[in-house]
Amino acid sequence: MPEHAVEALGQGHSTLAGRLSAIQAAIGESCSAAGRDVSEVTLIPVTKFHGPELVAELIDLGLRRFAESRHPEARDKAEALAGRAELEWHFVGQIQTKKARQIAQYADAVHSIDRAGLVDALSTIEREQPLPVFVQVNMTPDVARGGVQPEELDALVEHVLRTPTLELQGLMCVAPLGEEPRASFGELRVLSQRIQALAPAATGLSMGMSNDFREAIENGATHLRIGAAITGKRPDRT
Predict the structure, then answer these.
(1) Can you tell me the distance from the alpha carbon of 131 to that of 168, in angstroms, rounded to the nearest whole number?
(2) For the sheet containing 223-226, what is the strand order?
(3) Mind listing the pLDDT tens digit for each residue in 105-118?
(4) Percent with pLDDT over 70 in the chain
(5) Structural domains in the chain plus CATH codes
(6) pTM of the shown model
(7) Which of 30, 51, 95, 157 has the fewest CB atoms within 10 Å, counting from its CB?
(8) Which tens digit of pLDDT belongs to each residue from 64-97?
(9) Angle at 179 between CA 232 and CA 26, to 5 degrees
């Protein structure tokens, strides 16, 4: 996403508190325009590449849910903030099968279930309660991108439903770069209605990021994964 677009979404605010407030206001406005209650939408800031200090600032601003997409960065951040507050960590990145059990040790939800082998790897985790998960759908014909192809969705959903260690929350997608996001979000909403015949409680739609959350809200998003518009520029990495 172009840096100037991120700045526009943050309405020119130079502080973390200012950017967060601007995004929360934009979410509220988008919900009103779509005839939805803002309570139907959960904001999950994506804090990858930023240290635990930034997460601690967001905690001070009242947030408790955070998304990460890189292991072991996510693991280390969760450990560093374990005593800071009761937090909820959402893993939204692609998962290597061999890392699945490790991620399940600190993740409170996984948004990127995309294949049967990953479900099998998570079938042996030990938790007091099932791990909440979203099945990621690939909105492009490129099989190298994350997500299950729509024609294979039902089979994967059924596999998740047969796995006692997992609890299906709904579907997730990333809108293809350079394309109108409404088409993908509308398609995911239709797919969601279809899978609810198999899993009536799986009504969640994890879709919408910094540059397309408004379109996602229009199409029924329940979980927004917003990064740079809140966190700002990535810190310099050496």
Answers:
(1) 8
(2) 42-45, 223-226, 204-206, 166-172, 131-136, 109-113, 88-91, 65-68
(3) 999 999 999 999 99
(4) 94
(5) 3-231 (3.20.20.10)
(6) 0.94
(7) 51
(8) 999 999 999 999 999 999 988 899 999 999 999 9
(9) 40
Nearest by Cα to 101 from 119, 79, 76: 119
| Average confidence (pLDDT) over 163-176 | 98
Q: What is the pLDDT of residue 10?
A: 53
Q: How far apart are CA 224 and CA 212, in angstroms?
A: 10
Other CB atoms within 10 A of residue 117 CB: 10
- Residues sharing a CB contact under 8 Å with residue 41, sequence separation 6 or more, in sequence order: 27, 31, 217, 221, 222, 223, 224
Mean pLDDT confidence for 191-205: 97
What is the pLDDT, as a whole number, of residue 36? 98
